[in-house]
């Protein structure tokens, strides 16, 4: 999300609140498990806010964001961006109110305790992302670090005494409902206070990241009654669909394969079935960024019927992964490892959505005779990342603009009568929109590129036909 001064300014004040007392174990979980996912700066922001709390206290003193900028030695947009990461992963809740004095704002930054090691390693999303970031060897070391040997207690007999075995009953006259009003006030917690406790961080995913309407529409009520899709099952479906790129139709089959005779769905069985589906479909143990598809909330053609070739292409680029796009281009042949690694690296570093990456691939391959030159791809990717391109439509419009600028440059060169031969490149139809007034110079290479473009678009249409 792009930073805006309306979201946060340096004089805005904030108070830090913790929903529990952070322990040494929490610090290790944050450092070793969360930091690889959120990065060093977001981790530093969390630890800085934590340090503002006095030992075993839940509230800090009020201060300004200018003070936070001075401590962290970074800009306000950076603090805002890192704050969003903490919110997204469930480590921070943010609240704001406007005061009557000069319309100033006061924020409450509520620090949430991280998940326990067991919760983290069995989450189904966070553990897979951690595996992807640190690799197999380090992941196994972290699992070992956060676990310990278990003792077989089957040969032991419990001898623990119950409460009533040790303590005698309270005399009736001392029961709380018989105490005076003054005594009751001593027993009860004062107004405006809360007990110190613990509540683990829980991240959330919106319903619109998965098409539940299509999922329910094709689901047999006789095989899978609606009551079987509980809130926990629904949450698991969203996570698994996001993680493994599972569509609603495939998810129907997965759910039907795990429902038991009692018409209940076991979350762990659902997770294993989704992993098996992914391994069967992709032939890999874990999902990669280049296997993702454009998120539903960032699609412009999700519920729109294409009216022309450009919109059809737009919808195609929104619904295929970069890896599948390369396979479609090559007639189903597995892409080169170097190309996949390049795409993975760019998507990770530049945070480009899958659909935008597809436009970049399509654009570059048509301009470079079906190649993916690393420096050229990186240059365009970094430019689009700086411009906050998030949708396929935005990426295509930007590509059109760059193509128009290139055409203008070529025409000016031709007018000046440059002696050096200028290579004329053929661009996709959607790149030529709004500048068809340019008369292109016909050369032999252009005819070859025209043929390649047609073949390319036919290959892209074929899997969806």
TrEMBL record:
The DnaB/C C-terminal domain, residue ranges? 340-397
Q: Record's InterPro entries?
A: DnaB/C_C (IPR006343), WHD_DnaB (IPR058660)
Keyword list (alphabetical) reads: Coiled coil
Q: What residues does the Replicative helicase loading/DNA remodeling protein DnaB N-terminal winged helix domain cover?
A: 12-184
Per the UniProt record, one Pfam family is WHD_DnaB
Coiled-coil regions listed? 396-462
Family, per entry: Belongs to the DnaB/DnaD family.
| Name of the molecule in the record | Replication initiation and membrane attachment protein
Taxonomy of origin reads: Bacteria, Bacillati, Bacillota, Bacilli, Bacillales
